[in-house]
Amino acid sequence: MKLNIIITILYSICLTISSYAQDIYIATDGNNNNSGTKEKPVASLEAARDLIRHYKSINHLPKGGITVWIGKGQYDQTKPFILNENDSGEPDAPIVWRTLPDEKVSVTGGKRIPSNKFKKVTNKAILKRLSKNAAKNVLQVNLKKLGIYDFGKIKQYGHALSVTPAPIEVFFNNDAMTLARYPNEGYINIGKVINPGSVPRKRDYSNRGAIFEYTDSRHDKWAGQKDVWFQGSFMWGYADDNILVESINTKKKQIKLTTPSLYGVGSGRNYQHYVAYNILDELDSPGEWYVHKKSGILYFWPPNNIDDSSIMVSILEDPIISLEGASYVTIRDLTIEVGRGIGVYMERGSNNLIAGCTVRNVGTSGIFMGQGAKQTFPFITHDDYEGIPISRRIGNLQGHIYKYTHWDRKAGSNNGILSCDIYNTGSGGIYISGGSKSKLIPGNNYAENCKVHNYNRRNKFLWSGINIDGCGNRISHCEIFDSEWQAIYVHGNEHLFEYNNIHHVTLNSDDTSPWYIGRDPSDRGNIIRYNYLHHCGNPNRMNMGIYCDDSTTGVEIFGNVFYKMDTRHGMLFSNSGWDLKMKNNIIIEPISYTAEFSAHYYTWGKAGVPKAFGKHGLLRKRLTENVNIYQIPYSERYPELMNYLDLIVDEKEWEGMRAKRNVLSKNLIIGGPKNPLHLVGGEHSQCKYVNNYRTDDDPGFVDYQNENYNLRPDSEVFTKIPGFQPVPFDKMGLYIDQYRKNIDKIIYKDK
Q: How many CB atoms lie within 10 A of CB 652?
């Protein structure tokens, strides 16, 4: 009898949906037993999904597909909202999930904390640890009494380490708050190193933490406290790490760390520094917070009046929304926020679109295409990595793809991220993958017209505004800004980077650049054209504009505009590259060279030659095992690589050590050194310098003073450089469309 009733209800619902096949409605005050009509909406994303699944089980999708209209309000996910193969649309019948017109919808992985639950701190022991000003302003709330018991754990993460979900975080009026730290701004320099600890990069797996002297007496206050963490760059300015403190010796003024950093710990350079955090005593400024995990009490100094403010904490470690095998699905106009892991995860499917969404305040990546990797090797490592692909987590993706450069991460094809805003993320903004590097089949996945900023709250160097791998994907018309680290990090082949606006990145890191690729000569066919790169770099660091690192080949740099780049190693920098073509670009007021080419295998990199080219060398493995340059498709597509591993001098020199066929041609250069090309390391540092024009004067811009770098038709450039093509400066960056209604102009002090 009960079974008959259930069947009758489902049949009735199905008939109702059939009558309203193109529209299903969700509302915060709906009921999941409803039929999903406008008058009787369901209450959750899952309920709407299940109605569509049932409809599809007995009907064909109607022409034009089905639209799920989501009413205003907040929808908290205690588990990921998953769309799989059962939830796909069809080419002429997509499934569209969108907000009702002009309504704001937030899908979260967190929980709102009512402002009236916060009270003044009365515990004398706690007040004693706070400064007088903090004691007057810090409030507290018992999270356990609100049903929140899982606070997560801070774990070691950083260069060559797994990306981990964040522990609980606090967000106030849609901004990420700061876990109590010292100093509030800037860093602490590492003092004299007593013991650098073990160095996993040299295959020392004895797992010894470093010992070093501290340079700030504030450390004395933290002695004896547990769960104090240091985050910084401990040896090199590109290798960030996050390490637990084992002990603080106030007599010797020494720190001992619990675990090693990949390269060990060093001092004396201005990027060898750290911040200390997760310390209640340092809760001394507005916006800082601390959770006492045993009691469950959150201590928080609100940056503004807490009444009627939005206070949220993150809960969900899984992706908030996950597309796993679904195709022809559009998700648009949503705000996806407040999770400990990924905002939107995409795997396998095709022809999906994430459009007009805001993804913010998540613990790892904003939008992430393709699988991550679980490391199985038991220690921090670089060369001995082992692991397996995993879904819904990032893990040690970088370690996996460093070893298996041909890895197909199952990101699907023809998927787009369009006109989205991604910011306040922990581990990069967007990660694009797709296509086959092994077979050189394009994925045709893309990020277009997206604004990506403030994307390194947790992980730093390897996690850029947009990462990309695979084959044949695209990043276009995006604006990427506000990071001490990199904007775009590249693996793979035949990607297109065009019409992007990249600025105010690599502001406080070393050996970094707005655009980076390196250490795999088979990563060819990448095109960088019509981008605006400006106000990047730090004159006190080793920065570059376009960084074609060790043994990069086959990059075309055409029609870009570079302005006020504080990159002492050029707009283009290469270590022993092949087939790097920089043509028809505009370089304005550089502080250094336009291009610098280094024969590094004959200078500082000489000792590493056997490890690169020898019998078991890294480059040899990448060119003959991960892919095979002597077989189709590589032998046909890239015949230039056929002699890369040929011996010149027996077991000492190989062809790939010597730069070849690099060209700097037809570029317009305003200011900077009289000789814009810098060759370093002797005769094997090679680049042809052909028909470039350098001047100290306005060459005929539409409006030099106001940064309109379109060239007037009567510009002298067209006579000084025959064949110079106009650069479409006004098309670079974001544009207005049905999802992006306006473009905010950002004003910086250095403008």
A: 11
Q: Return d(Cα 636, Cα 642) in angstroms, integer.
A: 10
Q: For residue 392, what are the CA distances in angstroms to 47, 80, 364, 367, 532?
A: 22, 10, 11, 11, 34
Instruction: Give the pLDDT band of residue 750 (cuts 50, 70, 90).
Output: low
Q: pLDDT tens digits, residue range 125-157?
A: 999 999 999 999 999 999 999 999 999 999 999
CA 394 to chain centre: 11
Kindly report the average pLDDT of the chain as a whole number.
96
Task: Indicate whether this model's pTM tops 0.85.
Answer: yes
Specify the pLDDT at position 504: 98
Say whether both 329 and 459 belong to one domain: yes
Same domain, 538 and 595: yes
Whether 158 and 256 share a structural domain: no
Cα(512)–Cα(505) distance, rounded to whole angstroms?
Answer: 10
* Domain identity same for 266 and 354: no
Closest CA to 704 of 735, 670, 727, 734: 670
- Whether residue 521 is preceded by a cis peptide bond, meaning omega within 30 degrees of 0, is no
What are the structure tokens assigned to 301, written together? 């100094």
Q: Give per-residue pLDDT as tens, 618-660.
A: 999 999 999 999 999 999 999 999 999 999 988 789 999 999 9
Cα 30 from chain centroid? 37
275 and 164 co-located in one domain: no
For residues 218 and 131, is the Cβ–Cβ distance under 8 A?
A: no
- CB under 8 Å to 267, separation ≥6 — which residues? 189, 190, 191, 192, 193, 212
Helix, strand, or coil here: 333?
A: coil
Split into its structural domains, the chain has a count of 5
Rounded distance between C-alpha atoms, residue 633 and residue 438, angstroms: 8
Same domain, 464 and 366: yes
Segment 18-38 shows an average pLDDT of 86
- How many residues are listed for the chain in this entry? 751
pLDDT at residue 8 above 80?
no
Euclidean distance between CA atoms 125 and 197, whole angstroms: 36
Do 260 and 287 share a structural domain? Answer: no
- Alpha-carbon span 666 to 326, nearest angstrom: 47
- b/e map 439-474, b = 16+ CB within 10 Å: ebbbbbbbbbbbbbbbbbbbbbbbbbbbbbbbbbbb
Q: Which residue segment(s) compose the domain that 80 sits in?
A: 2-108
Q: What is the mean pLDDT of residues 502-531?
A: 97
CA dihedral 290, 293, 295, 300 (to 10 degrees): 10
* 208 and 151 in a common domain: no
13, pLDDT greater than 80 = no
